[in-house]
Amino acid sequence: MTSPFETERLLLRIMQTDDLNDVYEIWGSIEVMKYCGGASTKSRIQRSIDFYRQLQNEKGYSVYTVLLKETSAIIGVCGFNPLENEDEAELLYHFNQHYWGKGYAAEAAAACLASLKKNNTHIRKVIAAVDPANPASWKVLGKIGMTAVGMKWFEDTQQEELCFELELM
Ligand SMILES: CC(C)(COP(=O)(O)OP(=O)(O)OC[C@H]1O[C@@H](n2cnc3c(N)ncnc32)[C@H](O)[C@@H]1OP(=O)(O)O)[C@@H](O)C(=O)NCCC(=O)NCCS
User: Fold this and answer.
1) pLDDT per residue over 105-149, tens digit each?
2) pLDDT confidence band for 155 (50 / 70 / 90)
3) Is there an atom of ligand 1 within 6 Å of 36 CB?
4) Which atom of ligand 1 is nearest to the CA of 100?
5) What pLDDT shows up at residue 153?
């Protein structure tokens, strides 16, 4: 995917090493990560940033830093994780709590999907899994046109999650 790419209100770009403190406000937050495996540490986040920079180089997609165009504030992260099946990727979006409820997640996620399609990576199917107790998250997936396909057990979170899919081609 070509970075940066933008929407009406947002700019999405490849993660940078010095995003660490802003991303820690997101991945380090107990509240934000309540349904997503729990809060992370600064050193793990640093490794994730390195991982996503490398993923972008190798596969042409990754998880991006989301900035508000108006202020240049880093407000979230959104993009794709690789999956065991190389034709598939997992969509994720985590936003700083100060910026919830303004439609930013749906706007960013839709832009990531459009960019993935446009840049013709090898990804054929996008998958997302959400905790059923997290309605804000499954509402985002509905808004961007993903389809609920049923519940599935996940070892990492040790629970059943609601799965969504979108075929890209
Ligand atoms: C999930 C998340 C990304 C949504 O971000 P957002 O920018 O607020 O999302 P949007 O504004 O695009 O849409 C959220 C929708 O959920 C609704 N919503 C928010 N909280 C809700 C709640 N507790 N119960 C029901 N609906 C809720 C909003 O009203 C909105 O729906 P609407 O457009 O019909 O009014 C954000 O809350 C977040 O970062 N949460 C923590 C991380 C997370 O759970 N990520 C996803 C799965 S790992």
Assistant:
1) 999 999 999 999 988 779 999 999 999 999 999 999 999 999 999
2) confident
3) yes
4) 8
5) 92
Residue 130 CA: nearest ligand 1 atom is: 47
Element holding 142 (H helix, E strand)? helix 135-143
Domain spans in the chain, listed from the N-terminal domain onward: 5-127
Q: How far apart are CA 80 and CA 88, in angstroms?
A: 10
Cα of 102 vs centre of ligand 1, distance in Å, is 9
25, 30, 91, 139: residue to mutate for ligand 1 pocket, most atoms within 8 A of CB: 139
Q: What percent of the chain has pLDDT over 90?
A: 89
Chain-centroid distance of CA 132 in Å reads 18
Predicted pLDDT of residue 154: 86
Mean pLDDT of the chain: 95
Is the CATH number of domain 5-127 3.30.70.3040? no
Task: Please measure the distance between the N-terminal and C-terminal CA atoms of the chain and give it in whole angstroms.
Answer: 16
CA 35 – CA 12 distance, rounded (Å): 23
Location of structure tokens 């930013």 = 104
Residues 6+ positions from 57 with CB-CB distance below 8 Å: none
